[in-house]
Amino acid sequence: ASTAEDRSDYLHLTNPDDSAAVVDIELHGKDGALDSEVGEGIQVPPGSSVPVLLSTLTGKPQTNLTVHVSARSGRVAAAVQALDAKLGGDWIAPSAEPS
């Protein structure tokens, strides 16, 4: 994922349940976790999806980001939609943490 100026990457959070979910989003760059409180306590209403523009979670453009989503309550599915102004877009599927 990236927040570079020519990119518009979105994290799509989908709540399949009948009750609201609350999630925290952490971004990690080449030097570790990025400081941001904007990604904390994001509400995902029941049976809906919420798109989060990743550039709204950082103070300056970053490339090669890792996105970590934690649910405080409820369940969510998460996927990144990477959109490049020149090259088009693609979906980045979730992966598990290394063992």
Anisotropy-based shape = globular
- CA-to-CA gap between the ends? 22 Å
What is the tally of beta strands? 8
Radius of gyration: 13 Å
CATH superfamily: TM1070-like
Number of helices: 0
Structural class: mainly beta
Mean residue pLDDT: 93
The largest sheet has its strands arranged as 5-1-7-8
- Total separate domains: 1
Low-confidence parts? none
The CATH architecture category equals: Sandwich
Multimeric status of the protein: single chain
Name the helix and strand elements from N-terminus to C-terminus, one letter apiece: EEEEEEEE
User: How much β-strand is present in the residues?
Assistant: over 45%
**Proportion of helical residues:** under 10%
The largest sheet is: 4 strands, antiparallel
Topology (SSEs and partners):
Blueprint: E1 10-15, E2 21-29, E3 32-33, E4 42-44, E5 48-53, E6 66-73, E7 77-84, E8 88-92
Antiparallel strand pairs: 1-5, 1-7, 2-3, 2-4, 2-6, 7-8
Features:
99 residues; mainly beta; 4-stranded antiparallel beta sheet; 47% strand; DUF5719
Provide structural commentary.
InterPro entries: DUF5719. It holds the Pfam family DUF5719. This protein is mostly beta strands and 99 residues long. It has one domain: TM1070-like (Hypothetical Protein Tm1070, Chain: A), CATH 2.60.290. It is built from no helices and eight strands. It has a four-stranded antiparallel beta sheet, with no helix packed on it. Strands 2, 3, 4 and 6 form a four-stranded antiparallel beta sheet that branches. Strand 7 and strand 8 form a beta hairpin. The protein is globular and about 40 Å long. It starts with 9 loop residues before the first strand and ends in a 7-residue tail after the last strand.
